[in-house]
Design brief:
Protein name (chain B): Peptide ABC transporter ATPase
Strand order of the largest sheet of chain A: 6-7-8-3-9-10
Largest sheet of chain B: 7 strands, mixed
Number of strands of chain B: 11
Keywords (chain B): ATP-binding, Nucleotide-binding, Transport
Strand content of chain A: 15-25%
Radius of gyration of chain B: 22 Å
CATH class of the largest domain in chain B: Alpha Beta
InterPro entries (chain B): AAA+_ATPase (IPR003593), ABC_transp_ATP-bind (IPR050319), ABC_transporter-like_ATP-bd (IPR003439), ABC_transporter-like_CS (IPR017871), Oligopep_ABC_C (IPR013563), P-loop_NTPase (IPR027417)
Family (chain B): Belongs to the ABC transporter superfamily.
GO molecular function (chain B): ATP binding; ATP hydrolysis activity
CATH architecture of the largest domain in chain B: 3-Layer(aba) Sandwich
Distance between the termini of chain B: 34 Å
Helix content of chain B: 25-40%
Oligomer: heterodimer
Radius of gyration of chain A: 21 Å
Number of strands of chain A: 12
Shape of chain B: globular
Number of helices of chain A: 11
Largest sheet of chain A: 6 strands, mixed
CATH superfamily of the largest domain in chain B: P-loop containing nucleotide triphosphate hydrolases
Number of helices of chain B: 13
Amino acid sequence: MTSTSTSPSTHPHGRTGSSEPLLSVRDLRVTFQRQGQEPFEAVQGVSFDVHPGQTVGLVGESGCGKSVTSLAIMGLLPARGNRVSGTVSYDGTDLLTLSDQQMRDKRGKDIAMVFQDPLSSLNPVIPIGLQVTEVLERHRGMSRKAATPVARDLLDRVGIPDPDRRLTDYPHQLSGGMRQRALIAIALACQPRLLIADEPTTALDVTIQAQILALLKELVQDTGTALVMITHDLGVVAGLCDEVNVLYGGRIVERGERHELFAQPRHPYTHGLLASIPRLDAPRGQRLTPIPGSVADNLPWTHACAFAPRCSQPIEVCTRVMPELVPHEGRPLRCHNPVEESR
Amino acid sequence: MSEQTTTPTVEGTAPDGDVLVEARGIKVHFPIKRGVIFDKTIGHVYAVDGVDLKIRRGETYGLVGESGCGKSTLGRAILKLEPPTDGSVIFDGIDIATLEGEELRRKRQDIQMVFQDPLSSLDPRQSVESLLFEGMKAHGIAKNAKEARPRLVELLEAVGLPEAALAKYPHEFSGGQRQRIGIARALSVNPKLIVADEPVSALDVSVQAQVINLLEDLQEEFGLTYLVVAHDLAVVRHISDRIGVMYLGALVEEAEADDLYAAPLHPYTRALMSAVPVPDPVIEDRREQILLTGDLPSPSNPPTGCRFHTRCPWRQETKCETERPVLRVPEIAGVNPSQRVACHWTEQIASGEIERHAVTATATEAGDLDTGPDSLMGPASISEAL
């Protein structure tokens, strides 16, 4: 990797519409059932498509169900105490109907995941090199000996300096950014067609975040891997995702191509989020417009709009009827009273 | 508030009414110890290594930098929560670094702190009333809770919480509300300076704005001076009047918030600014990023000369590796004289005489101490110390 690079002027645009979606999530619901407690529906009917080579963002604040969605897609939620329904079709196969064994074959090979905290997702007592070759041995049937140079190249590919030496290093010997790179190397080992990244840069400093985002962008461009980016950071989404889904209270409230969504956010929540973030390029002295209240004020979606108590422009129907996710000016939107002005 | 007559005043600083806090040559070095029976000091983590800064009365000074740059340690050193290894902190004409015991305790009434994580900085077994009253009692502002009650209600109102909150406990509040309690506690003793260490980074973005606005309102209402320590450049730029950028224990650039954004001069500030994502696809698409290679070098073994030279895309053959640059006003036309930069080549970089070049990444270890062939125990304790 070169030290200085300019961000590409042409952004990899997803081939939306034309090709078959690689991943198609329909009406995904996840309910947590705990003894002695009311069941809690964390994800309440989420549907979206991901096409090959496309980067799709799932954005929302803590508790909006974005991470649970990704875990459900990967089949990583423990069966006990959780109920998952809906369909997650990957290349025509419904992942939710697969057995644990079949799912294990898919995970890591066809679909890979990068988590937020690399230190807790890497095994602390196994050298980095072995953690990469392990995947190659398991899914591609390579011998340890044959896998080692491949692992070395993978580490090199994700920009880890001195990869030969790093093969024998343990996770604690790497810095945070290097660990995240190692995790990406493991995820890429079998050239997955779908990569799910759950807050991959949240634990990192901005300059390191910039490196990792540039790496992900490059990978999508070079390999045509589809990327699902889960984040709370609208800035990350703005630069990386072709399509953005905004989640609130376990449901998608707005979806759109990034330029359209950021230029004309129609949902008061999206609009409010953008108005509440201090921007580096905003004129100083401008006051932020926060979204009042907190997620604790949410109404149940069943018979209202969950966001209504915090909304800047609620109307009477908002507290009575749940809005559906229906096209509004060509973009899916879940709102009774959309924001009309542009930002 | 009774002024201590015994406290040493530092000559020459007292008349300067404009400056509330002046830090001179602050150094905080943490010893790295090894040995089971004998605690042998085998090296130091140079968390803060020679920082001078002045905070004016009524302004907000923002300290930014990445993790491990020493910004939090510097904030704590100013309160003497972390005794500085060297240097002095002159607060309102009095050198805090020399204060001890009771005098120091009394002085702390003027300097309060707001922490990042309100859940761990508020005692879970204390009601809000008791949390807020504790400081007032310690500083003799109120004798009993009954007497303090009107003041407590006033405080809660100032931070936007209802009176009913007094009887509740920290776990009954949301993150944003807890941070409001933390702010109310800091305000309870009528401080002059509030040091806020990452005050909003644990909060969701929609709630972040509420707390930022609150901090701004309170500053206006009570004439407070803030030292805000944060890693989020956008947040710091939003609330600060002046900003200091830290890298490996030292200030590399200091400027008015607007100047820093309009024309960052130090190579590190330029890279940092260019790395912050902006929630606007149009800007993101045409933004020129300066990607730095590698990671922050270990503060226990900082690079010689300019500490940024190992990652600097503008590094030169001479000076950078051997001479440590001092914070100075650059000789560039049109630059505000309040902007100071610690770079040998600022002028040449600004004029385009020196161009950016590629840097090869060198491997840095997490907690790499390089003090001997055998590795040391517990890098975790070092990161904790930072």
